[in-house]
Specification:
The chain is mainly α. 68% of the residues lie in helices and 0% in strands. It is found in: Cell membrane; Membrane.
Length: 113
Amino acid sequence: MTGVVTLLVVAVAVVAALYGVAMLVRLGDALADVPPFLSGHAPREHAVSRFHVRWYTITMVFLAFDMEMVFMYPWALVVAEIGTAAVVEMFLFLAVLMAGVWYAWREGVFRWV
């Protein structure tokens, strides 16, 4: 039990020593005191401001096609072994994705103004 306590005390002492050395060799002010660099101008909005909702829908479309590629790479390796069934399955998968793109287009997801 004393070995565990000794190890814990040593670990806390090392962390405290490293923190103290970092505070001593700091070059500038604390980050909370320094304004963000923006070509000398004050920022117009908060750094954690919300994005327009259209970016979330574009992100979902991107993720759908990103997942398409995740499925197509292994498919390309086994298509020669499986044959026609693999080709039919991939075209069905692509048809479902194209139906999603058609729906998004119809709903105006890709309109920017």
